[in-house]
Amino acid sequence: MKSKFRIILKWTLRVVGALVLLLLAAYGVIYYQSEQRLNQVYQVTPVKLAIPTDSASLALGEHILAIRGCQDCHGKDLAGKVFIDDPGLGQVVASNLTSGKGGIGKIFTPEDWVKAIRHGVGTDNKPLLVMPSNEFFPMSNADLANLIGYLKSLPPVDNELPVHNLKPLARVLYIAGPLSMLTSAQKIDHTQEVVDKIEPAVNAEYGKYLAVGCSGCHGQDFKGQEMPIPGMKASANITSTGDLGKWTEEQFMTVLKTGKRPDGRQIDNKDMPWEATKNFKDDEMKAIFRYLQTLPGSQNLQTSAE
Ligand code: HEC
Ligand code: HEC
Fold it and tell me: What is the model's pLDDT at position 263?
């Protein structure tokens, strides 16, 4: 009896040992792959911009900052904050963008700003974490210059932040796919031409330009999707095959301004950032509404397509 038990124990230990070794080896491979991707060097050529300092341009820059949701991650005063703090995934920190202590404002050259915002890479040419530059890449040169001008004018705020800390689960999800958005640099065709200037208009074309900022959450096809970050609510279908199809332009604008749906349900700003979208001008909201109505699957395709 005793020896039989020993044999079972011996084999159990062997199997468990082999499994542990296998898991360690698999994680070794994932760790190596994630380190490679996180340390990949991107040789981008940042466009040379004349950064404006006049108050009219800075006001335009402030508006872009407000509608692009930079403050959702970098904080109201843009002094940065710990953006992801999850026991499983670890910590990701959004930088202090001011010229205060711990901020980048004093050290960044115009090219550094362009590299970070448009290309999603840091001063070391390695990918920035979580910074959604794939959404900012198509921003016109004029808009980008105004935005940087405004950022350079921010009052300094001292805020020294901790460093990132990616836990094994984050690395596994990063390599396996669900968290591949962790670095946006690899999703951008860095050689693509960007327009110098785009004139605001109440039409679908300008709406498309603005709606790029919605696609990170609502998906490339705007039909909604599950969110990769734990605790985040799935986004809604905002083509007219979703509830939006039954809403008027006015009702759509009320959601962007207040988070209140026509049925009275209050949407939480933590899920859908209406504190940011409320900053759109009415004409910009109308342009986005028109664009959403031209999307495939839309029942209103016939009436709104040119
Ligand atoms: C979804 C969250 C998120 C949004 C939205 C976002 N950022 Fe970031 N951003 C980050 C994080 C996180 C980092 C730090 C990346 C790193 O250190 O790897 C970062 C880094 C940066 C950097 C580089 C700073 C450095 O330390 O190298 C700049 C510049 C920047 N963001 C500007 C902006 C601007 C301007 C906007 C709006 C147009 C914006 N960000 C929107 C999360 C975000
Ligand atoms: C940070 C992620 C995020 C961004 C960015 C975002 N949304 Fe949303 N949005 C959501 C989520 C999540 C919901 C669902 C919230 C709920 O139902 O409680 C939602 C809901 C909506 C709704 C209500 C739809 C319905 O059927 O209830 C509209 C309209 C909408 N978003 C439009 C937009 C537009 C337009 C933009 C860009 C200007 C945008 N959103 C940007 C996450 C986002």
Answer: 96
